[in-house]
């Protein structure tokens, strides 16, 4: 397996993540783990297995015989020539073939400017060749605050880097994120994925993050974005805008608006009717016309049903002519006039013959050019032209 690096500022959760996602799964799967992480002990991991068994059903119980082992070492042990397995070893090594080796604060073990022992170089360069009787190869995990001061000999062989960031800027002191990169270059092009995670007190019981007991405190709370006055103002303004926009859209598309539109259409129709009626003097109603009165206008609606008068064409009407159209309450109407009375007929009583709208009233053909007034005007025009 390749070498993995876990980096992050102090308190970001890099050691926590190694214990949770690397050491614990390896221990539960039966692997031997060698580490210098403070507070780690095999008894802590066995106690954790006990707590898991107490929450599981009998068929899901952890078999203690299948558990691995935890070997806690010191920084000085890591510096010994026989710490790592190496080619041509003539004496027993602290870490064995197939072990998972996790070194915390690698800068304390291998100084960037210091020389790495040849035995250590052998393991770092060829750790995949050290296999145990189970067929497991050795793995190396290094933990550091930054990839910058990891020795180059190790850095060149790192396959994946996990960068931990505590989400204190969002006020989430119990959460952190993991950015996974390919290699040690923490660029956008090498970024693989981002994982959101939460701290679990059960994991903290497996190791000791500090050399001594202590409580982490914030010396400047302005780092918390949620406590920023500017951020709070912007969020409040954005919330107000969303609510106001919602009310506006609701008002625009609600039923009240539809009723208002219908009322406006009715008012427009009444205005059109009043304007048409003012063009003539209404003195009396005519046959087949019913008069309906209200406070301001007099509206005339024909009760005549669609007829078949075309079969008995009596010729062009000398009385009625078409003067316009009107749409009222979803009814399409044709406006007729005899210069005295306005009459409304349903548009369905009329047909288009060519480009001419034609209908039949009392057997007579009614068009835009029918009616006595039109004929009289045409006669006067013909007479004028003849006199000239």
From TrEMBL:
Keywords: Membrane, Transmembrane, Transmembrane helix. The chain crosses the membrane at residues 231-250. Residues 293-312 are annotated as: Disordered. It comes from the Bacteria. The keyword Ribonucleoprotein does not apply. Gene3D superfamilies: P-loop containing nucleotide triphosphate hydrolases. The keyword Isomerase does not apply. Residues 6-210 form the Zona occludens toxin N-terminal domain. It holds the Pfam family Zot. This is Phage-like membrane protein. It comes from Glaesserella parasuis HPS9. The lineage of its organism: Bacteria, Pseudomonadati, Pseudomonadota, Gammaproteobacteria, Pasteurellales.
């Amino acid at each position: 397996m390749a070498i993995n690096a876990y980096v992050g500022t102090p308190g970001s959760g890099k050691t926590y993540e190694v214990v949770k996602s690397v050491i614990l799964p390896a221990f539960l799967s039966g692997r031997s783990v060698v580490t210098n992480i403070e507070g780690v002990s095999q008894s802590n991991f066995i106690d954790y297995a006990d707590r898991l068994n107490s929450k599981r059903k009998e068929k899901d119980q952890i078999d203690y015989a299948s558990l691995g082992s935890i070997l806690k070492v010191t920084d000085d042990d890591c510096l010994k020539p026989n710490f790592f397995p190496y080619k041509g070893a003539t004496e027993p090594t602290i870490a064995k073939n197939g072990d998972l080796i996790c070194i915390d604060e690698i800068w304390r073990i291998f100084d960037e400017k210091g020389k790495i022992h040849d035995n250590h170089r052998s393991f770092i360069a060829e750790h995949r060749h050290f296999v145990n009787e189970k067929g497991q190869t050795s793995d190396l995990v290094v933990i550091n605050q930054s990839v910058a001061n990891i020795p180059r000999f190790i850095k060149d062989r790192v396959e994946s880097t996990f960068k931990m960031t505590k989400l204190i800027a969002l006020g989430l002191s119990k959460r952190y994120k993991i950015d996974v990169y390919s290699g040690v270059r923490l660029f956008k092009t090498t970024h693989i994925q981002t994982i959101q995670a939460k701290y679990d007190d059960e994991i903290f019981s497996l190791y000791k993050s500090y050399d001594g007991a202590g409580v982490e405190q914030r010396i400047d709370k302005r780092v918390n974005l949620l406590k920023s006055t500017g951020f709070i103002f912007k969020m409040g303004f954005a919330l107000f805008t969303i609510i106001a926009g919602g009310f506006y859209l609701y008002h625009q598309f609600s039923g009240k608006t539809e009723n208002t539109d219908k009322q406006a259409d009715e008012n427009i129709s009444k205005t059109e009717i009043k304007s048409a009626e003012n063009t003539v003097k209404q003195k009396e109603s005519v046959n087949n016309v019913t008069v309906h009165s209200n406070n301001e206008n007099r509206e005339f609606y024909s009760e005549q049903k669609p007829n078949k008068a075309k079969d008995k064409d009596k010729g062009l009407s000398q009385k009625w002519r078409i003067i316009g159209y009107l749409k009222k309450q979803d009814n399409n109407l044709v406006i007729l006039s005899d210069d005295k009375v306005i009459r409304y007929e349903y548009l369905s009583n009329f047909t288009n013959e060519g480009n001419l709208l034609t209908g039949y009233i009392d057997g007579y053909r009614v068009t835009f050019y029918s009616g006595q007034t039109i004929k009289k005007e045409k006669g006067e025009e013909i007479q004028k032209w003849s006199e000239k």
